[in-house]
Amino acid sequence: LAHNTDIDSEGSWIPVNNICLDDFAGKGIKYAGYRIADYSSGEVVYYYGWIGIEVDFNKQNISIAERATNFTANRPILTGQTE
Q1: pLDDT value at position 23?
Q2: CA separation for the pair 56, 42 (Å, rounded)
Q3: How much is the pLDDT for 80?
Q4: Residue 56: predicted pLDDT
Q5: DSSP class of residue 34?
Q6: What digits encode the pLDDT tens for the residues 17-71?
């Protein structure tokens, strides 16, 4: 995902095994969104977040540049947002 992309319930959620290094290689920091399901209240609640990933051109080095999670239930976060 690009910088300032919404991570929320309207996102296009794909299985983690559909992510490929070619999606990131040599493209600078790109983002992968995630959601955490919490069932403790008896209903499912989601917390949304992102991980900034950088992969070098030859796919030899992978770096997690940063990450963030919005711990307000069912509220979106933008990729790159830290506050």
Answers
A1: 84
A2: 43
A3: 95
A4: 96
A5: E
A6: 777 888 889 999 999 999 999 999 999 999 999 999 999 999 999 999 999 999 9
* Residues in a beta bridge with 63: 54
Residue 41 φ/ψ, nearest 5 degrees: -85, -5
Q: Give strand pairing partners of 34.
A: 49
- For 66, other C-beta atoms within 10 Å of its C-beta total 14
Q: How far apart are CA 47 and CA 7, in angstroms?
A: 10
Concatenate the DSSP letters of all residues of 44-58 into one string: -EEEEEEEEEEE-TT
Pick the closest to residue 79 from 55, 54, 49 (CA basis): 49
CA 62 distance to own-chain centroid: 15
